[in-house]
Amino acid sequence: MIKAIDEASAIVKHSNVELFKSDRAAVLASLACIQILGEAGNHIPIEVKRKYPEVPWGQIKGMRNRVAHEYFEIDEEIVWSTCKVDMPKLRALLVKILDSVNLD
Prior knowledge:
Number of helices: 6
Distance between the termini: 21 Å
Structural class: mainly alpha
Oligomer: single chain
Number of strands: 0
Largest sheet: none
Strand content: under 5%
Number of domains: 1
């Protein structure tokens, strides 16, 4: 999951929303990262999801499903914001969880 977040963050790192929207390759690559993130999240055992309810598991899955099944209704500004704002927060949360697991 962290790798997909890092890749999505790298795509939007030096862009604003208008530049991002005009770069079809960046949009498509970001959508692929969102799908990968969602698929990875689907493989997390339910026990782990219950233990870490602060992770927005449902939103991760929902975004993946929207990208995969409602492709023609995607708002590119939301994709950019997800990659630029939400994913770094999610990454920090996942790293914190991994660090606590590694300390146990």
